[in-house]
Amino acid sequence: MSYFEDLTLGRGISVEMKQRYHVKNLLVSEEARGQVLFEASLGDIIELNMLDNRVLEVKSFNGVLRVDLFIEELEEMINKSHSRKASGSKLGSQISSDKKEKRKNE
Q: Which residues contact 51 (CB under 8 A, 6 or more apart)?
């Protein structure tokens, strides 16, 4: 049984960082139901994998991010994103425009 199967609170995530240097913030509220904030720099993405068709694994230069996400859910979200772009929706278009502009300037 995997870590993600043991979770009863919903979707699980796992973040492994190769060095503490890449962690920008880790804030844990002292309240019982308080928030937790984790910020880090994963660096360049090296590889994307689906583990057992239910965990998205993002391997990067600085660490690994795993998200409990079925492959069907991921495909559905990607398809929705593509149809929003095709219909002229602004969601997601700013990010792609920023990336294109950055590449031009490099």
A: 57, 66
